[in-house]
Amino acid sequence: MRLLLDTHALLWWGEDSPRLGRNARAGIDSDDNQIFVSAVSAMEIATKVRLGKLIDVLDFSGNFETIVQRAGFQPLQISIAHALKAGSMPISHGDPFDRLLIAQAMIEGLTLVSNEKLFDGFGVARLW
Asked: What mean pLDDT comes out for the span 15-27?
């Protein structure tokens, strides 16, 4: 499987948090799966750290690329196609980070690793 980690899934994986779903953890830990981490998550973490909404992940935001590389995850950049898809999707969900992750999953054929049940209505596969 080709998996795209939602930002919270990435953070909970990094913290080894019990909040990460059992199936999600198994999917991330499986050597059979290719794991992608989006530049969207880097922006979301940096933004929320700056705003004081995330205070326990300062090390993660400062070492984002290193953590992703050491874990063997594949970085996924934001393309113009991703941005256009996210901006033009006729969905009521307003979170720009989530919209971009949904668009990336759709265009790249990835399964989103997320606890967001709301994603199920957008035509993307979700693992949790």
From this structure: 95
